[in-house]
Amino acid sequence: MMLAVVLVTIVGPAAAKVYSQCQLATLLRNNGITSNINDWVCLIISESSGNTTAKGGPNSNGSYDYGLFQVNSRYWCGTSGPGGDCNVACSKLLDENVADDIACAKKIYARHGFSAWYGWKNKCKNPPAVTPC
Ligand SMILES: *[C@@H]1O[C@H](CO)[C@@H](O)[C@H](O)[C@H]1NC(C)=O
Ligand SMILES: *[C@@H]1O[C@H](CO)[C@@H](O)[C@H](O)[C@H]1NC(C)=O
């Protein structure tokens, strides 16, 4: 008797994944961010409320902000395919795979520190506003 195995790929509208502060702390650690976890978690909560599909804007200069870290399309990601200094499509920063979001955030941080994010400057600087777990 033959068994037919049918693989079904379910493609639906991207569901918003919303992370708690504790889950964010774990997610960051698993992606190689090992210091300043409270600042990072506070930054994400301030910018996107932990919502992977958060899209902000349009900003006054016509740019948009994408994903957990609200990465700005003016410099960092491409609005029509991979681009920007992170060489990633902005749309990819809205899906549930957050590895590319974190890689891009590391790049932004390496260049500008936490001050690159208004959410951090306004709500997390001195002292960080959250204790994740
Ligand atoms: C997450 O963000 C998306 C896009 O802005 C929004 O539609 C959704 O309601 C948000 N989810 C939660 C739980 O806030
Ligand atoms: C556009 O506006 C965003 C959000 O205010 C800002 O992060 C970005 O630096 C601005 N870009 C330019 C070129 O002014």
Automatic annotation (TrEMBL):
EC identifiers of the protein: 3.2.1.17
MF terms in GO: lysozyme activity
EC class: hydrolase
Signal sequence extent: 1-16
Keywords from the named record: Antimicrobial, Bacteriolytic enzyme, Disulfide bond, Glycosidase, Hydrolase, Signal
InterPro entries assigned: Glyco_hydro_22 (IPR001916), Glyco_hydro_22_lys (IPR000974), Lysozyme-like_dom_sf (IPR023346)
SUPFAM superfamilies reported in the protein's UniProt record: Lysozyme-like
Catalytic activity: Hydrolysis of (1->4)-beta-linkages between N-acetylmuramic acid and N-acetyl-D-glucosamine residues in a peptidoglycan and between N-acetyl-D-glucosamine residues in chitodextrins
One record GO biological process: killing of cells of another organism
Family from the record: Belongs to the glycosyl hydrolase 22 family.
Protein name: lysozyme
